[in-house]
Design a protein that fits this description.
Layout: H1 2-12, E1 25-36, E2 39-46, E3 58-59, E4 62-64, H2 72-84, E5 92-96, E6 100-101, E7 106-114, E8 130-135, H3 136-139, E9 145-152, E10 155-164, E11 167-170, H4 171-183
Parallel strand pairs: 1-7
Antiparallel strand pairs: 1-2, 1-4, 2-3, 2-8, 5-7, 6-7, 9-10, 10-11
């Protein structure tokens, strides 16, 4: 699909900057994109409220690196399969974003991938409460984004928020989303990709 070819090119124009922080546990997440109504959409998951970390929050599929993983990309694919049932064979690689540090001690490598629309997801109820699908065009609306300064360990840190369609995406997930949206922004210079869609 031309849109996803363009997205891959835009991501490749910004080589990912890996961080070397051996004291942090390595992890990876996948930003799954798909085409619907002629426009790119993105998938998120909501964690069950009972989970110790990120309970009830919206996130991307992903998790910690295991010794059997040959690469961070494979970690993202394995976790996506385990969490929502999207197999590695059904994910097309689009690109990699800069590493980001989680306040929980993880060094997270984000990847962007393409999946099919209306995929027959099989979410693991122990890890996933809900699958959320949103159009990238809607997430680019300045009215849905804001940033707050929060205190963490005695320091002020900026925290990103996206509030759209009754959903609140914030923290590390929002920061990763913001990074991707900034890198593929030229895609939306073509107004054919920017039609309003029904949510």
């Amino acid at each position: 699909m031309p849109q996803f070819t363009q997205i891959s090119r835009y991501l490749a124009a910004y080589p990912a900057r890996p961080l070397k922080r051996k004291e942090l546990r390595p992890a990876a997440v996948l930003l799954p994109l798909f085409q619907r109504q002629g426009q790119p959409w993105i998938l998120f998951t909501r964690r069950p409220a009972h989970l110790k970390n990120h309970g009830g929050e919206i996130s991307f599929p992903g998790g910690g690196v295991e010794t059997s993983d040959r690469s961070r990309w494979q970690t993202a694919l394995r976790e996506t399969d385990e969490e929502i049932g999207v197999t590695a064979e059904d994910v097309g690689y689009l690109g990699q974003l800069d590493d980001i540090v989680s306040i929980y001690g993880y060094l997270v490598t984000p990847f962007v991938g393409q999946i099919a629309d209306n995929y027959p997801y099989r979410p693991d109820p122990g890890e996933i409460d809900e699958i959320i699908e949103l159009p990238l065009h809607g997430l680019r609306d300045p009215d849905v984004y804001h940033q707050e300064n929060w205190q963490h360990k005695g320091r002020l840190m900026p925290v990103d928020f996206y509030q759209i369609n009754g959903q609140t995406i914030w923290g590390m997930t929002a920061a990763i989303l913001k990074q991707m949206l900034e890198r593929i922004d030229p895609l939306f210079a073509d107004t054919s990709h920017c039609r309003p869609v029904a949510l």
